[in-house]
Specification:
By secondary structure, this protein is an alpha+beta fold. 44% of the residues lie in helices and 18% in strands.
């Protein structure tokens, strides 16, 4: 697969996954956002989600499947609530985190087939980012949201309304601005490897101004 964002290890993984997995799961999150839409940063994770409850294979099947990836030295499994996360360690020391998770929320956009992959829509990635930000502090989320708001035509308020509808939750218009104010705490060393120029202080000011506008609305 020709792609300037995906790493060689990520391409190896995609080439190694069987069709039944690729047909049942779609790639989402920051990797999908950067690799297929914005091309703004590198990502060492691959998040494969499915909305089909019967589409989740047993852990041992997934582990055995991942062991077939070339140049792999070790596979470590971690269950985080209902998330199934595999840490792949390659012979050269590179690490790739791969997740296969049931994500039972309705989609708002249209997924598309790119090569062997089903890729999530930008709208669903964006609303998923906002939903995830309510219970975690990850500098990558701030970077992704900043580029989403700059790259696409949605306003933050529109995305919050869509996320509220999608996840059937209340209060995002309050919790998300609170989280965005945490941009002040992000240090330079916290940021991912960028492929597009990023003025960190400008990003902080931008997101904090968006949060302040929502709180004052």
């Amino acid at each position: 697969m020709e792609n300037r964002v995906l790493t060689e290890k990520q391409k190896l993984l995609i080439a190694s996954l069987p069709e039944e997995i690729l047909d049942g799961f779609y790639l989402t999150g920051g990797t999908a956002l950067s690799a297929f839409y914005i091309e703004h940063r590198l990502s060492m994770d691959m998040d494969f989600f499915t909305d089909k409850k019967k589409g989740i294979p047993p852990v041992e099947y997934l582990r055995a499947m991942l062991r077939e990836v070339p140049y792999l030295e070790a596979v470590h499994f971690q269950r985080l609530f209902d998330r199934r996360i595999f840490k792949l360690t390659f012979s050269d020391g590179d690490i790739l985190n791969v997740e296969f998770t049931l994500y039972p929320f309705k989609g708002l956009g249209q997924r598309k087939k790119i090569g062997r992959l089903w890729v999530d829509s930008p709208l669903d990635i964006a609303t998923g980012k906002l939903f995830a930000m309510t219970d975690r502090f990850d500098p990558k989320d701030f970077v992704d949201l900043y580029f989403i708001l700059r790259h696409f035509e949605w306003t933050l308020n529109e995305l919050l309304e869509k996320a509220t509808f999608r996840f059937e939750v209340k209060g995002l218009q309050y919790t998300v601005p609170e989280r965005l104010l945490l941009a002040r705490k992000i240090e330079t060393d916290d940021f991912p490897i960028m492929l597009k120029d990023l003025d960190i202080e400008e990003m902080k000011r931008y997101l904090i101004s968006k949060a302040s506008a929502l709180v004052g609305a």
